[in-house]
Amino acid sequence: MSHEDEQLLALALEVAREGGALVERMRREGVSVADTKSSQVDIVTAADRACEDLVRARVLAARPDDGVVGEEGDDVRGSSGVRWVVDPIDGTVNYLYGLPHWAVSVAAARGDEVVAGVVLAPALGVTYTAVRGGGAFRDGSPLQVREPVEVAQSLVATGFSYSPEVRARQGRAVARLLARVRDVRRMGSCALDLCGVAEGSLDGYVEEGPHWWDHAAGALVAQEAGAVVEVTRGPALDLVRAAPRGAWDQFAALVEECGFLEAST
Ligand code: IPD
Ligand code: CA
Ligand code: CA
Predict the structure, then answer these.
(1) Ion ligand 2 — residues with CB under 5 Å?
(2) Three-state SS at 209
(3) Same domain, 175 and 221
(4) Residues 247, 150: Cα–Cα separation, whole Å
């Protein structure tokens, strides 16, 4: 864990807190859909845009040579080698409906390797942080994944794309998974699902289609808490899988048997 990575985490935390406070304030004033994106259920609110603008501005004011990639804006190339990966609200549909499961996700990467990450969930009142090689924390307390269990006893989170065609495939794979595990959860935030694996409130997470901004910070939190997180690149979509290290082989094989990998490759 380098001193610079700790500084990146401190900045990530500062901007995520500011972004989270802004999004909370905007929620109290009333949330409405500002636009739709890939499909009519893929929404963006004014708060998504305002939060990303704030995070980008704060980060680049502090570190003008860095790059930034975020869900709601352009890919800004920097010259320092550090890239910020931002999802201003992960769980926008929950945010729209007044459900608490949403988070501001801010990560810093060197090249493709995430080195610091923050997942801040204002409505849940929790903040997850991690620096590569420095462990993972929830509100400052160290995190550890759950003891590995047989897959048949595992509680697994998943998520669905905004595309109806992709959803139909995902539904078939999830139906197979459901018959093989303790139960399945769909909570609506990839970042928080990964933090759930980190803190032991889930035994695994699998989803076809998340983007880098969805999983960058949460994956580091999970890895630093003792999980394996694998992103399998497909021609169109990536498959993201996470499970405690000791349960990884069984979990990865199960997901493959259920047809998740077929869907993304
Ligand atoms: C979504 C959430 C959801 C996942 C979707 C993501 P958004 O992000 O993480 O849990 O299933 O794949 O797109 O749109 O709320 O930022
Ligand atoms: Ca997201
Ligand atoms: Ca988002």
Answers:
(1) 87, 90, 214
(2) coil
(3) yes
(4) 8
Domain range spanning residue 117? 3-142
* CATH code, domain with 15: 3.30.540.10
> Are 132 and 189 part of one and the same domain?
no
The residues lining ligand 1, judged by C-beta closer than 6 Å to any ligand atom, are 71, 87, 90-92, 159-161, 188-190, 207, 209-210, 214
Ligand at minimal distance from the CA of 71 is 3
CATH number at 239 reads 3.40.190.80
Atom of ligand 1 nearest to the CA of 93: 15
Same domain, 48 and 98: yes
Tokens of 160: 């669905």
Ligand 3 center–CA 140 separation, angstroms: 25
Tell me the per-residue pLDDT of 205-243, one tens digit each, with 9 for 90 and over: 999 999 999 999 999 999 999 999 999 988 788 999 999
| CA–CA gap between residue 86 and residue 118 (Å, rounded) | 10
Q: Closest ligand 1 atom to the C-alpha of 87?
A: 16
The structural domain count of the chain equals: 2
Q: Is 227 left (phi over 0), alpha (psi -120 to 50) or beta?
A: beta
Q: Name the pTM for this structure.
A: 0.96
